[in-house]
Amino acid sequence: MKKIHVSTRVNGDEADFVCAPDETLLDALRDRLGLTGAKEGCGTGDCGACSVTLNGRLVCSCLVLAAEAEGAEIGTVEGIADGDKLHVLQQSFLDHAALQCGICTPGILVASKALLEKHPEPTDEEVRYWLAGNLCRCTGYDKIIRAVQDAAQKLRSA
Amino acid sequence: MRYAIPKTAAEAASLLMEEAARVLAGGTDLLVQMKSGVRSPEVIVDIKHLPGLRDISREGGGFRIGAAVSGAEMQEDAELVAAWPGVVEGVNLIGSTQIQGRATMAGNLCNGSPAADGVPAQIAAQAVARIAGPEGERDCPVAEIPTGPGKTSLGRGEFIASILLPARPDRSGDAYLRFIPRTEMDIAVAGAAVNLVLAEDGTVKEARVALGAVAPTAILVEEAGAALVGSKLEEPALAALVRACEAACKPIDDKRGTAEFRTHVAGVLAKRAARIAYDRAGGRA
């Protein structure tokens, strides 16, 4: 298999890697670029643990070929905090104990950030539908919804 | 395996003539099939960079939707949603927010699932696919694309470049409903799409009804549409619609629904979708 050279941008920085043609963006992020925030849960687009943004659009990186990232703008959980300063959403997840094992958390943070950028004042129902593709097997969803709503409120009044 | 980004439709068609070539648009079916070993393509032909494939353009009062336009992009086009709410709501039922960021209406059609949520409302809408291939372009009604589970009428080297949703007359409306055992993220047990055009007095002038997940492909039920024409969705017309839908069902029995249940639910959904379409067309059901 001929390897492919890919030039892309990740969290605003230029990034280059070489990948196999059937390699997923998730594998390239984790194994080529060392960005292990996005997790592989199911590998088939059901669980959302690998959520990233691709040209501003929320996607499962396990269902994107790494080669498709050529010339694209990718956002991962590593780009959410501002240096050592946590994003409001991250702090809110800590404050509300909206995680236990944490495997689903990076994906849920990326998905929630995409939600609040599009809908700054979502209803609980909108949050639940938006996050329906992010599965959490330990905390359950109530604390996550509360953390997202609290962050939304803080972002609106910021 | 190779990954190719053709720049012209002719180049794409020529790549697709190769052995074990597959089209990549949103990839939400293809990558899952590759992972599970159902498909092992030798060439992946990424059609997203072909001219017009990512555009929703206005054409003759209707909408031409490029084969690489995602469900999320369709939802964000307010004029498209206003004209064809049923088509858009069908497409938007496919998967999660993440899937909507990538999945396409044309891909949902070409995947050939009998339960595809994006397909019945296209059939009810009389959507027409523009197919590109080795011989150039041809147009084909969406209703004639799926031929069985996982199968389409597309020839070797052919792919869908865009889908045209025609212009809407005044007083028209469509709707799509499906039944799933959960509230989100599931495969339709039965689905129904209804597309109506009303006369000035609110009488149904034209009606097309299509069902999903109750036959090897999504099906147009002409008798069901005919049952509504001339009515204002009074009870006898709705009862005739339900009978026609039930008569057209040839569903499978499986763990997600018995044949009897699917047949019954298809009729119920058609009736409810008809009421929504009628309301959207400006009638009062």
Automatic annotation (TrEMBL), chain A:
It comes from Allgaiera indica. One of its GO terms (molecular function) is 2 iron, 2 sulfur cluster binding. InterPro entries: 2Fe-2S-bd, 2Fe-2S-bd_dom_sf, 2Fe-2S_ferredoxin-like_sf, 2Fe-2S_ferredoxin-type, 2Fe2S_fd_BS, Beta-grasp_dom_sf, Diverse_Oxidoreductases. This is Carbon-monoxide dehydrogenase small subunit. It holds the Pfam family Fer2_2. The keyword Manganese does not apply. PANTHER family: OXIDOREDUCTASE WITH IRON-SULFUR SUBUNIT. Keywords: 2Fe-2S, Iron, Iron-sulfur, Metal-binding, Oxidoreductase. PROSITE patterns: 2FE2S_FER_1 (PS00197), 2FE2S_FER_2 (PS51085).
Automatic annotation (TrEMBL), chain B:
The keyword Kinase does not apply. Gene3D superfamilies: 3.30.465.10, CO dehydrogenase flavoprotein, C-terminal domain, Uridine Diphospho-n-acetylenolpyruvylglucosamine Reductase, domain 2. SUPFAM superfamilies: CO dehydrogenase flavoprotein C-terminal domain-like, FAD-binding/transporter-associated domain-like. Keywords: FAD, Flavoprotein, Oxidoreductase. Pfam families: CO_deh_flav_C (PF03450), FAD_binding_5 (PF00941). Residues 1-170 form the FAD-binding PCMH-type domain. One of its GO terms (molecular function) is FAD binding. The keyword Nucleus does not apply. Transmembrane segments: none annotated. It comes from the Bacteria. This is Carbon-monoxide dehydrogenase medium subunit. It comes from Allgaiera indica. The lineage of its organism: Bacteria, Pseudomonadati, Pseudomonadota, Alphaproteobacteria, Rhodobacterales.
